[in-house]
Amino acid sequence: MMCLMILISIVTLFSFAEKTAEALPRFEQPILITSAGQSADVQIGGVLAKRAGLIATLSKNATHQGLGDKKTLVLVIGVSMKGLGAAGLDLDQEKTRVRGLIEEAQRKGIPLLCFHLGGEARRGELSDQMIEACLPYAQMVIVVKSGNKDGLFTQICTQKNIPLLEVDKIADAQKPLKDIFPQNR
Question: Which domains does the chain have, with CATH numbers?
Answer without folding.
Answer: 27-184 (3.40.50)
